[in-house]
Amino acid sequence: MKRKIIATLLAATMAFSLAACGGGGGDSTTSSGTSNSTSTSSAASASSGSEDAADSSSASGETASDVESPVAGKKIAYIMLMSPATIFQMWSDSFEETANKLGMEADTFFCADNAETWQSTIEQCAQGGYDGLMVSHGGQEYAWDFLSGILEQYPDLKIVTFDTPFKDQNGETAKIEGVTQFFQRDAGFAADLLEYLMSLPENAEKVEAGEPLNILQVQQGAGYNSPFDRRQEGYQPYEDEGKIVTVERIAPTDDQNATQSMRDVMTATLAKYTDDQIDGIWCCYDAYAQGVYQALAEQGRDIPMVSVDISNEDIQFMQEEGSQWKACATTNWTLNGEFACRVLALELADQYEDIAASSCYYEDIGDWLEIPSSIITQEQVTSQDGITIENVGEVADEGYSDTSWMPTCDWMVELLGY
Fold first, then answer.
1. 366: pLDDT confidence band, cut at 50, 70 and 90?
2. How far is CA 140 from CA 114, 120, 210, in A?
């Protein structure tokens, strides 16, 4: 049974039914009342019939393959700081589907880019009896202290984090015992996109001659956020090795209206350069890239551009006639949700060794995994009609749908197929 609960509605619902999580507090800055209620959500009270029967069957640990799941009957949640964009909805659907196959109940909470809502939702779910939480996009300035406090109060709770760096009170990288962190391969995004620009026919002569490409970099400065900083780590070696020259680094001046701001900044920047002075535009984020693309299209400029992340709007821009948007670096967001659920399930089963056995695990960092990246090209998304982010796997390279990097174990193979 799937339940979609938007966290921005959580407070009003909770006043009457303690929706999904109940009260409680492990945060040093926020707290709320307590309750012994076992109600899981307003959606749960409205559901009945065959859905309840299906949940009861899966919770019993009996599956179609008659393999007992050690996590059957567990209750888990995906708590996302941001709003439910298409990619995050794909993640949520896959997370919940995987949970159901493993005999677990799963809920989703989106927090409308509000850090206080993110923290209070985690608090409430912890007290409300959830066994495991997959929490996403927590800020490095508060996540380590806040989650450490939650686990001190609820030591049996299991937590997995995505794109949530841990920094202690001194700003140093920190760990939380038993918490697995994972990220996209951000440095790989950057490098793959630069390699793609170097592979373009219009740049072949310079590359073969050993001349650096002139790159206009669309990127915030150091310390803006952790993913961007990691993308810079993939970009910087190309500059250090003389493979590229950054002609200028630009970024939006209004973070609250990033695409329009980037469009204005790009329009002003283009006035300073001719097309042959820039061999490629490298964008750290697709919301910025959308503004860059609009400025290029409006002025009819012939400069190839690439970006990190992908959305349906990006694909539509890439499909436009004469588009200069050549490629996006991304992960498979459906696989991301399954991956997150697998990691959390292995924590719940206390099988950390199977997490560490995954090919995307970094032992030198510890309890840290990175999801492999893929390049989606303009040629791919224009190769057949009707390509969207939901079905781009039909035209993407095989690596986009590869699952060999997924953590697994004997019972997961039986229940999930691999």
1. low
2. 14, 17, 40
